[in-house]
Amino acid sequence: MNAKIADGLKSKGINSAAVLDALGKIPRERFVEQPFRTTDMCWGDSPLPIGHNQTISSVYTVALMTQALSLNKEHKVLEIGTGSGYQAAVLSRLCSSVFTIERIRDLSLKARSVIESLNIHNITFIIGDGSIGFGEYAPYDRILITACSPDIPLPLFNQLGEGGIMVAPVERSNGSQNICVIEKKNGAMLSKEIAPANFVKLIGKNGYEAQTPQRCGF
């Protein structure tokens, strides 16, 4: 990530030095398809296709959602939707451990291969239905959902520790999406919207049915 890209992110409100440093340390070009590995394409403002009708989010979206998690080095993070693995790699620089779930086996295996080649060792890969979470290692300090759901899946909220933060895109009744920051306070859900979004849909038991048409990534 060059200085121009970093300055562009800062101008959009990405002011966390730790997040900017993490973005700079992870080679984003390793997570995108060959035709998109030029600087302008790879680090641009648009999502990029990664196969299976899925996308890698724009750098700004990754930065925004990561910053909203308010991570520290002791946090245990659950990510729903591994995709390319780029978001998990960024998270791995900022927390103790990442558990990332992907329903599409090919994507999970490819992401794991790239991340292992980068000598990142604090990410656990799970293939399965992300909408039900991964209770074996709950509670989590932070949960990041990288696909849109009609509401916050209750099993995921239940796996969030007290005082924890979840960041997730949620669909409104009019069909629009917003990235929400959800805090767990005394067992209650406190939510605020921070940005509009247009993610692919969260497919699974507590998301959308598999036949539901998917949107392009944000």
Description:
The chain has 7 helices and 9 strands. With 218 residues, it is α/β, with parallel strands linked by helices. The chain has one domain: Vaccinia Virus protein VP39 (Rossmann fold). The two termini are 20 Å apart. The C terminus is likely disordered.
Order of strands in the sheet with most strands: 5-4-3-6-7-8-9
CATH homologous superfamily identity: Vaccinia Virus protein VP39
The CATH topology is what?
A: Rossmann fold
Number of helices: 7
Topology:
Elements: H1 3-11, H2 17-25, H3 39-42, E1 48-51, E2 54-56, H4 59-68, E3 76-80, H5 86-92, E4 97-102, H6 105-117, E5 123-127, E6 140-145, H7 154-158, E7 160-171, E8 177-185, E9 188-197
What is the compact description of this entry?
The chain is an alpha/beta fold and 218 residues long. The protein contains seven helices and nine strands. The strands form two sheets. It has a seven-stranded mixed β-sheet with strand order 5-4-3-6-7-8-9. Strands 1-2 form a two-stranded antiparallel sheet.
Which descriptors would you attach to this protein?
single chain, 218 residues, alpha/beta, Rossmann fold, 7-stranded mixed β-sheet, two-stranded antiparallel sheet, 26% helix, disordered C terminus
